[in-house]
Amino acid sequence: MTPNRREILMFASLGISSYAGMKLWRAGATGLPSEPLARGNAFPKLPIGMNLAGIADWEPGFPFKNLFLGARPWLTRNLSGSGPHDTKAQEAFQYDSDGYPLQVPVASPGEAEPQTVFTYVPNVRKPGKYVLLYDGEGEIDGLASTRVVSRKPGRLLLEMTHDGKRYEAVTIRRSKLGNHVRNIRLLAAEHESSNLDNDPFLPEFLDFCRPFHCLRFMDWTGTNNSTEEEWENRKRASFYTMRAVSGDPDAIWGPAPTSFQRRFSGGVAIELMIQLCNTLKIAPWFCIPHRATDNYIRQFARMVRDTLDPSLKVYLEYSNEIWNWGFHQAGWMLRSPLAGALVEAKGGKAWKDSGKTQGEGHPERIGALFRRAFSIWEREWSGDARKRLVRVGAVQAAWFDASKRTIRWCLDNGGLDAVSPAAYVGPDKAIYQKWEALGAALTAEMVIDDMTRVLNATREGSGLSQIVAFGKQHGLAYVAYEGGQHIQPKGQAELPYSPALAAAQADPRMYDLYIELLRLNRDLDCSLFNHFSSVGRQGTRWGSWGAKASYDEPNTGSPKMRALLECNVEHA
User: Fold this and answer.
1) What's the predicted TM-score (pTM) here?
2) What's the start-to-end Cα distance of the chain, in Å?
3) Phi and psi torsions of 255, nearest 5°
4) For 11-40+50-63+203-567, which CATH superfamily applies?
5) Are strands 214-216 and 155-160 parallel, antiparallel or unpaired?
6) 3-class SS letters over 476-491
7) Quick one: which of 221, 223, 393 has its CA closest to 316?
8) How far apart are CA 274 and CA 300, in angstroms?
9) pLDDT in tens, 217-266
């Protein structure tokens, strides 16, 4: 897992050490009422969008009929099945452009036995019969809890447990060179006859997405710690998995990703994201990979322009939380010669030293990188198309000055359309200290009480409202790239008070907390509130980001989802 992706680790670049500077939404007067507005019979209405959960075999938010699109990168094992779980011989295989090995088994230097490949697939769907279809000549088998019931060339009938605890896995034991196993599709039996080109998404996933005004694809594209650079190497819709593999090509924090690992960058294919939005008539929110070349950004812009439904807006963001030092993109930004050159070209100072090895002025660097991406899209989205493009300046709610400097850079160098801080409600340092002292005595009711006090204090003065007000002064809309509850144990550790945080997610008063959070954002004239996130596990030490725990969970059983839907403005 990555470090706490919500925790703002901004101080390294400016030499600030006080944790107090991280308190969310606590800087300055806003002119907003000091108490929540009376609800009466009305709900605060505003357009709600949704961040879609990332693609992983253990996550309940998996969206595709074809389970193989959630497969992990190939692991390797001895042909006999003996020896290590993963012999790490991936580089011994040759692969086609869709990631399938051209021949199995193969010899690998240092291994006594021929090597085969296998992968884990989603284990969170419904138990029962599944069908595995494939092209080519070879032998496929089940591993872990996946059992083959019957087989014939090109088709296996499988029994899968899908209890979320035991692994489901598939192995290619043999694949013929010249007609290798490829185009694997793993489907519930009732979906065997589906046309996956035209209808790749689970119906319950489509139903979940249907009410929302925007779908943000940050996690789908593996934006955080992305290794994506060249357009010609991007993930295609025909690739065997839509899982993203992150890494640090500069090898600052560990070994650089291998050539095998680089094949899996990019997450879900852009074509599939566009297809989803066209199907549902919902606006996409795209995040440009931080390492993307000019040509990558240009081709991305052209593909969306040429294939997205022309009635839809497009929200455009560069990377994600590029100020957050828990992600590789932040360190890359501060070291980047590209960012430095962009700042210097406008007369700014970007380096602490003459050798240009120590970057400074990260707000201006971020603004320059934003404008680089925006300007490329502007050239491709001219004329009437430009009216549909929303250039989003995603900034840091906790640090008004840095956010203002980033937005100011954009305003002075070509413009943008919207300012976008996150809109979370979560514990601060004092609350964490209180919870630590209470330990197992903490209750869900206490958690909601604490969050309600945080939310009320937000109305009295906040970095969020300062950023929004600054944007309004310059004609910028306010959209929240992420928002919702931000309740997790400190440091994402298993702590005595963790059960209370989990229980708070389903507490009826979580509904009231969400109503008031949305009311606050409505009062700030938020034109789009993107909840983080769609469907996900609840009560884990990593957080409880999902609006609900599964697609099957009734909305009435999820206070977060119910509040989002009841406050959402219906589509025109």
Assistant:
1) 0.93
2) 40
3) -60, 145
4) Glycosidases (3.20.20.80)
5) unpaired
6) CEEEECCEEECCCCHH
7) 393
8) 11
9) 999 999 999 999 999 999 999 999 999 999 999 999 899 999 999 999 99
